[in-house]
Amino acid sequence: MRIVSFGFQTWGRKTLQALIDSEHEVVLAVTHPAAESAYKAIWNDSVEELATEHGIPVHLTERADAETIDLVKRARPDVIVVNSWYTWMPAELYDMPPHGTLNLHDSLLPKFTGFSPVLWALISGAEEFGLTVHRMDEQLDTGDILVQKRLPIPPGATGTELVLAGMELIPGAVHEALAALENGTAVWTPQDKAERTYFHKRSDRDSRIDWSLDATESERFVRALSAPYPRAYSYYRGERIEILEAVVSEARYGGTAGRVIVQEGGGAVVCGADPHRGGNHALVIKRVRSATGTEYDGAEFFARGGYLTDFPA
Question: Which residues form the Formyl transferase C-terminal domain (predicted)?
Answer without folding.
Answer: 204-303
